[in-house]
Amino acid sequence: KPAESDKPKNIIDNTGKHGNTFNRTKPDIIQKPSGQKAEDPEEEALQVPHSTSVLVRRSGGHHKVMALDATDRPRDPVAVGQFGQPARVPRDKELESRRRWSEGFFNVFLSEQIPIDRAVPDTRPQICSENLVHDNLPSTSVIFCFVDEVWSTLLRSVHSVLNRSPPHLLKEIILVDDCSTKDYLREQLDVYMSQFPKVRIIRLKERQGLIRARMAGAAAATGEVLTFLDSHIECNVGWLEPLLERVYLDRKKVVCPVIEVISDKDMSYMLVDNFQRGIFRWPLVFGWSALPEEYIRKNQIKDSDPIRCPVMAGGLFSIDKSYFYELGAYDPGLDVWGGENMEISFKIWMCGGEIEIIPCSRVGHIFRGDNPYKFPKDRVKTVERNLARVAEVWLDEYKELFYGHGYHHLLDKSVTDIGNLTEQIELRKKLKCKSFKWYLDNVYPDLVAPLVKAEGLIFNAGTRKCLVFQNHNLFLDKCDLTNKSQHFSYTWLRMLRQNTSCLAPQEKQIIMEPCDNTKTHLRWMHKSGKVLTEHVMIEGHSRPICLEAGVKADGIFLKDCDPINTFQKWQFTHYYAE
Ligand code: LR7
Ligand code: MN
Fold first, then answer.
1. Residue 375: nearest ligand to its CA?
2. What ipTM was predicted for this assembly?
3. Which of 154, 189, 210, 256 best tests ligand 1's pocket when mutated (most atoms within 8 Å of CB)?
4. pTM, whole model, 2 decimals?
5. Which of 61, 73, 102, 527 has the greatest number of beta carbons closer than 10 A?
6. How far, in Å, CA of 498 to CA of 489, rounded?
7. Alpha-carbon torsion 337, 342, 345, 347, what sign?
8. DSSP readout, 390-425?
9. Relative to the alpha carbon of 204, which ligand is closest?
10. Could you tell me the sign of the dihedral formed by the alpha carbons of 365, 368, 372, 378, in that order?
11. Per residue in 420-475, pLDDT tens?
12. 518 burial class (0-12, 13-18, 19+ CB within 10 angstroms)?
């Protein structure tokens, strides 16, 4: 059993480092039917368990998934790390192994000891080797983008594809060198790969980042399906056919293998738990989450059934090439690393496609604690900017949840230039994509996504009255739930809003101003019943000051905060979030 620290990290943070582990939680998962119908009468409808849409079964013959590179007959059965076993560093090599860690942020020394074509345990659910696939599946181009990848892992990735893919389905392997700085990735790589006619190398003259590098790979691809992989992976037995089978059944299915774990420490190949979905939490943080047992039981989901995912991890998937371009590929404005998995996931679901994890397809991946390559600009800023582009194009009114979870600063356009979005917005219109609300309701209903933090009446404890905004006046009056002018909301960007007007401090008075998420003086802290100014210091106050109801008149003012003054206590009718 793998040690706790070696287990897959099920929440990946937005920094590019796989550091954050998260306790496994079990959200309530409900998948609502989308109810698509097969149009061609010659094609037979087939209801797939769990996947709720109706699939189309193509005609033609079938055969079993090929047991290529059966794992019981490796070239060198006693080699280090063979069969995916943990490898150990000899005592006298410990220093060397530690020294070389940062070449790839995994055990580079051990990786070199392990055969380039080692066998790995066949971790597929039992039924997978019996499953039938169509004889006439489409061919695929496998695209590896890399920058400064470690030699041994790059080679092992390529060999695993060459050895475990049926030749007639593997059109080519495209290696996209995203302007690596390492010498061995030039001539030495050319020479090595020249043994394999199916391998092509594309070299980018400038560092493009993995997103644009993938598009360069796609542009050169001649296969019918694109299969993207990270450059430090090992494909398991029978990995390819089940992916292509799904794409063949429905070209709008975008499919991912189960991503297993190659230990960064001992290079062992570890299987991961079944029934894991790709999900995200705010602010667009990718993670995995298990389907609840209850749901699995009730829907009789088998361990080999495709699992629909709200989002994909990003690195490993197959997509019909023409469909990829129909979707407008990736937003080319995304830089270097991060966020592209969210972009393509929202785009796929909202514009008529589906994302699935296929349990019969399994690929190991080295999860690294750090990236062995440099970010041309600041790493955190790069990822944030990418995510903001995605939020602006795809999240509609829900983008406030994204910004409200720690990304307020991105709204200041003088600090962060997220670039031009016209083309992406046009694309969404052209494709007639559904709303983010639709996505939440139909694809990811278990995500908690209240549009505001609190709403309803704002009750003042001292006066036992409620705030009213009427005829351009802000005052307190008898609480009345039916009175619309007493309805306010406390937004994710911490504004106190009624329709399009927001509470604003003006000296020690309060006025209503047009809401504007970029204006920080409109932000209020609301905690432990108090409402405090956030970004404004008034008349020499060095601290924020508090909203207070007038004792006699029905006005509201800003006064020094006083913990026991009930005239400074305010409460909304409903709270959705802290
Ligand atoms: O500028 C770059 N140019 C590149 O060509 C930066 C990276 N790359 C290459 C790199 O060499 C590697 O092959 O792109 C690939 C992905 O980079 P990694 O391995 O550093 O990324 P990762 O595994 O840490 O991150 C995951 O999230 C990324 C977000 O942009 C990408 O989608 C990765 O493909 C993705 N990896 C996976 O989905 C594997 C499972 C891990 C998870 C979650
Ligand atoms: Mn990776």
1. 1
2. 0.99
3. 210
4. 0.91
5. 102
6. 7
7. negative
8. HHHHH-GGGHHHHHHTT-GGGG-TTT------HHHH
9. 1
10. positive
11. 999 999 999 999 999 999 999 999 999 999 999 999 999 999 999 999 999 999 99
12. exposed
